[in-house]
Amino acid sequence: MKIKATITFNYHNHKQAEVAYQSLLPDNIGFLESYQHHESLVCNLKGNSLKTILSTADDLIFSEMLVEKILEI
């Protein structure tokens, strides 16, 4: 079974979205596809099981929370 999910993070401005994209990119290679769209970071997750998707989403959200702390949002 193929499972897909999309998580979108919205920021105050384009620069914050760019910093988040660049910060999370190395950690996400091979696990998900992401791109920056204006003030947002869009992450598309794909997997063969719900457990895999949930684990990837959990890791992504934890990493993004660290980016928020760095940006002082």
Gist?
The protein is of the alpha+beta class.
Write up what this structure looks like.
With 73 residues, the protein is of the alpha+beta class. Helices cover 51% and strands 30% of the residues. The chain contains two helices and three strands, in the order E-H-E-E-H. It has helices at residues 14-28, 50-71; strands at residues 3-10, 32-37, 40-47. Strands 1-3-2 form a three-stranded antiparallel β-sheet. Helix 1 packs across helix 2 (50-71). The radius of gyration is 12 Å and the shape is elongated.
Give the overall pLDDT as a whole number. Answer: 91
- What is the count of DSSP helices, taking H or I runs of 4+ residues? 2
Strand content: 25-35%
Instruction: Indicate the overall shape.
Output: elongated
List unreliable stretches of 5+ residues: none
Largest sheet: 3 strands, antiparallel
How big is the Rg?
12 Å
Structural class assignment: alpha+beta
State the end-to-end distance. 38 Å
E-strand count: 3
Query: What portion of residues is helical?
Result: 40-55%
H/E element sequence: EHEEH
Question: Strands of the biggest beta sheet: in what spatial order?
Answer: 1-3-2
In terms of topology, how is this protein built?
Layout: E1 3-10, H1 14-28, E2 32-37, E3 40-47, H2 50-71
Antiparallel strand pairs: 1-3, 2-3
Helix pairs in contact: 1-2
